[in-house]
Structures are given as structure tokens and as C-alpha cells.
Amino acid sequence: MTEKLEPIDVLLVEDDPGDVLMTQEAFEHYKIRNTLSVVSDGEQALQFLRREPPYEDAPRPGLILLDLNLPRRDGREVLAEVKASAELRSIPVVVLTTSEAEEDIARSYDLHANAYVTKPVDFDRFVEVVRQIDNFFVSVVKLPH
Questions:
Q1: Whole-number pLDDT of residue 61
Q2: Contact 12, 49 (CB under 8 A)
Q3: CATH architecture assignment, domain 12-133
């Protein structure tokens, strides 16, 4: 018996338009049924998650893809606030960043990131990584509703 998977809302927090486009293309290429919302800085991410203006009608994401190096508030601050919030901490956060620095990896896990993924530069590998993240967190892992 196969369980029918319900689409989830994915929040991409990314300031690089090229990476946003590649993620959107990965969703389209693999016919990922999940909805992708995009914000381009840490302040917008927190407004979106708290449903503050202009995001009063924002869906509650089932997964957050978070870049670390963001304007206004960086990804570490966003991660810390999400995981400190009783309302938001159960949302899985995948840090998706170009940084391979050991201190960024360690700090992200200290802040309770669910996974740390280094963005491949190559388009095909990037698309495959997004597909694998989606497959794992939507098809494999059981998430709270």
C-alpha cells in the first residue's frame, strides 16, 4: 500500500537570483508538486514565518531551505530564531549554502539545523541536490502536521 503524499509548502530563503531560478527549475524539472515560496533576506523570512505584513496570508512551510549569507539578517540569525520559537521549531530547516567552512557547518548544527548541504556550482548537480532534499524530507521523513 502506497501512501498518497500531500504537497507541502517550501520556503526558500535565498538572495541570489540565479540560485532562486535554479531551485525553481529543479521543482519544475522533477515535477515537484510542492509549492515554493521565495524571500530574499533574513528579515523577510522571519516576517513570512510569523505571518507579519506583507505576509499575513503566507502558508506555513513544511520545509525551509535557508542560505546562510543573507542581507539584513543572516541565515544563522534566522535559524536561531526559528529553532527558539515554540511555534516554528518543528519546521525542518535545511541550510543550503555555498559555504564549506567547518565553523559554519558546526554552528548550523549547534543551532539545530536539520541538514547542511553545500550548493553545487554545476546546474545539473544543483537540480539533483534539490530533488534529493525534496524526496528525503517529503517522501522519506515523517513530518509533524
A1: 94
A2: no
A3: 3-Layer(aba) Sandwich (3.40)
Sign of CA dihedral 51, 57, 62, 68: negative
pTM above 0.85, yes or no: yes
Counting as low any pLDDT under 50, the low residues of the chain are 1-2
pLDDT tens-digit map of 29-54: 776 678 899 999 999 999 999 999 99
List strand residue ranges (DSSP E) for 7-86, in order.
Answer: 9-13, 35-39, 63-66
- The CA-atom distances, in angstroms, between 79 and each of 8, 42, 59, 93, 108 are 20, 9, 18, 8, 8
Q: Which residue ranges make up each domain of the chain?
A: 12-133
Contact 7, 39 (CB under 8 A): no
Is residue 111 within 8 Å of 79, Cβ to Cβ? yes
